[in-house]
Amino acid sequence: MNDDRLVVVITGANRGIGKAITRQLLLQNDKPLIVYLTARNVDRGQKAFDELRREQLRNASDIKMQNELRFHQLDVSNHESIHAFIAYLTLMHGEFSIDVLINNAGGVVKKLQDMCNADTAYQTVHMNYFTAVSMTTLALPHMREHGRVIFMVTALAHLGIFCGDLPRVLTSDDLSLNGLNIIENGFISSVGKGTYAGYGFPPMPFNVAKAGLIAYARILARSTIDDSRGLLFAAVCPGYVKTDMTGAFAPLTPDQGAETPVYIALTDNKRLRRHNGGLWKRLKPIKW
Ligand SMILES: NC(=O)c1ccc[n+]([C@@H]2O[C@H](COP(=O)([O-])OP(=O)(O)OC[C@H]3O[C@@H](n4cnc5c(N)ncnc54)[C@H](OP(=O)(O)O)[C@@H]3O)[C@@H](O)[C@H]2O)c1
């Protein structure tokens, strides 16, 4: 049977902004979708799946039911788990199986004010940067025509937090993924040695990791320019959102935080293409 529904994958979708993105995609009427809610923990993922499925049934109309929710285990820090999920998608939807990948999984290791030591730097950069790079690298060959990849970042990871040569290097058209990985690993090791400031890094592992993803979106847009599939990449700041990551003082709801990634996932290609690889906040491209 020919199924022309778009396949959307959300990582870390069992709670917080990822769950809100999944809910909004499931309940929208613009485009028929198959929405993959993925989570590293099967029980937590299944619980979120059941909850959203009940919500979809409560809101049921013929149009809304055109969207289908599916659950699959996915731990983005585990290569075997990523491979297993991609193999499953390929089996279900063919070699080119993904229309939209939303790299949402991430977070902070400790409270942000606990700041910077070697262990926090290692864990935070791996949890936010290297996991999304692994997921995207393995998913990229399976993206469909006009496929898009979204990275959840923060506008607080702006270039002004870096000193010396780093802003120039991070925005250089010559920067490769390999070079970017060296920068992120360099941050981790320089925190261990206490020399990070001398290299121009701030003592902020979360922001350094997210800046890496902003740079990565730019690299991907540049390096796939001749790819006939016309792929799109976007780094998205959700704003300061009340979730387990932030706590009670954040002003936005997860649904508000989900608005821009959902917009990028669904908006017509032509409106986004001009800003391929760019940084977005509140439905608009912003300066890095
Ligand atoms: N909240 C904000 O104000 C804010 C601001 C800027 C950027 N962001 C970014 O937006 C994204 C969502 O944030 P949030 O506030 O919704 O965070 P959250 O409530 O802490 O949720 C994080 C989600 O990521 C999942 N996760 C973490 N590591 C994972 C892994 N290895 N594999 C699969 N899933 C994993 C968690 O799963 P478990 O339940 O299993 O732990 C959870 O579902 C994150 O990337 C965050 O950095 C958030």
UniProtKB/TrEMBL annotation:
Pfam families: adh_short. GO terms for molecular function: oxidoreductase activity. It comes from the Eukaryota. Keywords: NADP, Oxidoreductase. Belongs to the short-chain dehydrogenases/reductases (SDR) family. This is NAD(P)-binding protein. The lineage of its organism: Eukaryota, Fungi, Fungi incertae sedis, Zoopagomycota, Kickxellomycotina.
